Amino acid sequence: MGSPFDRPGEACGVFGAFAPGSHVAGLIYFGLFALQHRGQESAGIAVGNGEQLTAYKNMGLVATVFDESKLAGLQGSVGIGHTRYSTTGSSTWDNAQPSFRG
To answer: Is 41 tagged catalytic?
Structure first.
């Protein structure tokens, strides 16, 4: 028997965007929405504007976690989003990603 990593398996969804002069949170939202099948436990987005990073994450589906006001608070031209499918660790807010330590 081989390693479980020898064959394709399920994993989280990750989507990134870089668009100088634009805010990417909305684009990342739609990317995560398209990748929702990759993870349905939690969703998060982190963006940067060249001076600071801002992140928001919560438990639930992408459409439940984010609304227009949450996306409006994520101002930046580069960012990454994540939908979680637990392969290790429990399904908790602390394990939701992206992880951010400011």
So the answer is: no
